[in-house]
Specification:
This protein has helices at 9-19, 34-42, 52-60, 88-100, and strands spanning 2-3, 29-30. It is mainly α and 112 residues long. It has a two-stranded parallel sheet with strand order 1-2. Helix 1 links the parallel strand 1 and strand 2. The radius of gyration is 17 Å and the shape is elongated. 9% of the residues are buried.
Amino acid sequence: WLDGPAGSHTHLLLRDMFERHGLSPRIVMQNDDQANLDALVRAGAGCALLREEAALAGAASNDFIVWGQARVDAMLGFILPYERASEPALVALSSIIQTIWKPRAPLASGQL
């Protein structure tokens, strides 16, 4: 398996996917660039968790195969420092993100 660096979302998702079945992946390489993972899969270096649109595009062009039984849902979040939340650029960015995403309730201070 091609894995992300320890602590990355790719690494955590891959580990969780295997651990649910009492297994651990055999890692052949770690890489922190999602675009590189796609290229490494195309080159035959190993299997990887890819974004759905990249996986489907690669399968459509016969560059690789998508294993239909493996699917991982990931949560995307946006975090900004509370003390900088009123800065105009961050207010604008936050507004755009809220327009695009359906945000969940924010976490309380000190909560993970």
